[in-house]
Amino acid sequence: MPARPSRVGLRVAALGYLAALLVVPVGLVFYRTFEHGIATAWEAVTTPEAMHAFWMTVFMVAVAVPANTVFGVACALYLVRTRLPGRAITGAAVNLPFAVSPVVVGLALILVYGQEGWLGSWLTEHGVQVIFSWPGMVIATIFVSLPFVVREVVPVLREIGIEQEEASRTLGASPWQTFWRVTLPSIRWGVAYGVILTTARALGEFGAVSVVSGKLAGQTQTLTLHVEERFQAFDLPGAYAASVVLAALALLVILSLTLLQRTRET
Amino acid sequence: MSPPADAAAVLPGPGRGRRRGAGRAPPVAAGALGVAYLSLIVLLPLAAVVARSMEGGLGAFWEAVSGSQAVAAMELTVLISLAVVVVNAVAGTLLAWVLVRDEFRGKHVVNALIDLPFALPTIVAGLTLLALYGPRSPAGINIAFTQMGVLLALLFVTLPFVVRSVQPVLLELDTEMEEAAASLGAGRLTTFRRVILPNLLPAIGSGCALAFARALGEFGSVVLISGNIPFKTEVAAVFVFGQIESDNIGTAAAVSVVLLGVSLVLLLAIGALGSRRSRDAG
Amino acid sequence: MTRFRFPLLLLVTLAALVPAACGGPAGGGKRLTLVAYSTPKEAYAEIIPGFQRTQAGKGSTFSQSYGASGDQARAVQAGLPADVVALSLAPDVSKLVDKGLVAPTWDRDAHRGMVARSVVVFLVRKGNPKNIRTWDDLVKPGVEVLEPNPFTSGGAKWNVMAAYGAQLEQGRTEAQATDYLKRLFENIAVQDKSAREALQTFSSGKGDVLIAYENEAITSQQKGEEVEYVVPDQTILIENPVAVAKKSKNPVQAKAFVDYLRTPAAQRVFVEKGYRPVVESLQDPRRFPDPPGLFTIQRFGGWPAVSRKFFDPKDSIVANIERGLGVSTG
Description:
The complex is a heterotrimer of chains A (266), B (282) and C (330).
Chain A: H1 4-34, H2 38-45, H3 48-81, H4 87-99, H5 102-113, H6 120-125, H7 134-144, H8 147-160, H9 163-170, H10 175-186, H11 188-204, H12 207-213, H13 223-232, H14 236-265
Helix pairs in contact in A: 1-14, 2-14, 3-7, 3-8, 3-11, 3-13, 5-7, 5-12, 7-12, 8-11, 9-10, 11-14, 13-14
Chain B: H1 7-10, H2 28-53, H3 57-65, H4 68-101, H5 107-113, H6 116-119, H7 122-133, H8 147-172, H9 176-183, H10 188-216, H11 220-225, H12 236-245, H13 249-281
Chain C: H1 2-22, E1 30-36, H2 41-52, E2 60-66, H3 69-77, E3 84-86, H4 90-98, E4 114-125, H5 135-138, E5 145-146, H6 154-169, H7 174-186, E6 188-190, H8 195-203, E7 209-213, H9 214-222, E8 227-230, E9 234-244, H10 251-261, H11 264-272, E10 293-295, H12 302-311, H13 317-325
């Protein structure tokens, strides 16, 4: 058995690192936000701009998460359950968003959907504005949160095998019925994890939307952009309050993850 | 939970329970939709960046990436990211060790907290660090506008990678060999160095590679605390951002391609490492 | 797994509804987008409600975007929707005229298209510990100067011309003035993107002196910052333009807004926030004294000539100085 002092020493070192880097800074922001009372904090976070930014963020998530979930499940099925060509490339392509800096995502979208972009000129002619407006931000959010559902579902699909699905087919179920009644329930943990991770990533997106949004307060500002804007306007209370909302959402996310893990283990 | 650690898991390969003729082919329409989705959102835009960077030919590309401000930004980014990796290798392993081998009250909470940097928006991360370590710090520490500030921000966002990479390996590690070494009279440090560490190295390696890739492209957490001072604290992503705003799209694209290239190589390396590991594990 | 379907459908419906909600009051409201340079946010925050109380402004809603003047102009060129542009200096508006985004007659009114004025001042720490009073003090060794990047920030261009012109006002030659600029840039610790960001950097404790708009200095004092400002004897008169964008979807209200900005009501708000008014009746030499060596951009032949000689990104006085320091000039 390891000697007591060194074990405690390691523990202190590890927890100390975590405290200094993570816990104290985040705790300080919570403290600063509520320092002057809950009412002040509430006021700071319910300005029209802040509210709009909040709904903008919710909207981004509401579009990106279902889209990436549907795509993710379909893609996972394609990668694992079929022998169609192109799986290696698709598998690699799905991982690409992890390799791309958010700013580069923004640049990439401008080059395709901007006024002089590959598709942008055609879009502008038809009156569709992507960059500097919410569609561009939605695409950016989808881009950065794309891989999670796929990555969580693929290993699950592999593990569960196809016996049940084959049994279902033998019993006369159509492919669609098999999917809904057999496959989907068996991958629900993977999907759940994936959805939570996708949501977290979509909520927190900053760099890519920063580039494509034009930062029109009250129109194309997400809550993350709002935090930056408040900071730059010397409105620290506003910035902290919005940050606390985002941090609370982040804590909710990891809580769901932990709960999910616990439920799954039991 | 280990989201990005299993890059290998997504690539097709022999899965357990797979048989010939496994799949019923999904409707072609769904397939086409999926391809369109992936292309319009990921592939086309990334191709556009590469194309734009080459628009003026290799000469223009070289000129763009060899400008002194660009070089300074890339150098700074690589050096600080390497420092981040070194710190993470040690701290991450330490954290994983304590989380796996130690028992104390609140361990579950600490374990869950490790994921906070994954869930917290980067701009908020930067703001929290600025609150504690910036000009209005209650502790009197002010590292805003310094490279230390950049380092701190990057450490924050890359915290989970090594920890989450090493934890599962530590969990599965057979303690027999450690016990054998101890019974042969090996000190604890020696046991760690010669028995445990070699088994952890691949996990530490892939966690470090992921952390490095993440640090390279980091933007949101650095933007507030670093002051973005060209040649001193301006990281590559901030430089690209500035170039986009100044309408120097060519330069922005060129430096982006460099960043992309390095990250891709890293991702491939992690993938290769991962698949070798799973093959060895059988 | 029908359990998933319903929440998903709900989310998607929500998703469809929110942009409708964001579109402003259904059908009735006129949305105006103001694209401005980085500093006048506080002024417009009060002016806009004032406009909304007028007959012409009733029912209008505003979206506002603030950023470095040069970058904002570029954004509008790149498609950022705008109804009214309020930039730091006339050349940024001229760029939009060249691209057909602003009518060429924008400056043919009583105020030559201008909406507010200011002068270039030195913002220093309270008590002015380094005793910075003149332009020569800025190039002393050990003095850290903050000044935004002239290739992104409009305010920076005003600052540079103030510095250059101050040398000429003191009887020095053009060569000496250029050399002064070089020494000044060597003392610049950080070149932020915009005037507002430079103020932020200064507030965070960096630098000994910030070259800024007088109205930024006053705003920061109003915000409780521990600073004071010095109006140097020689400085330039800043004039900030405003114009209606041709692609505006609400041109009538956009024009009404621009007109409103020149009324005493709006100008009084500008004055409160530290700007010098363009409306004669509100000009107050006691509050805003004119320094002895005040000059305008006309001293150098106006902005078109100045832009070419000093700020051409490829080859100009300032571009060459910046390149010498390795800073990107765009």
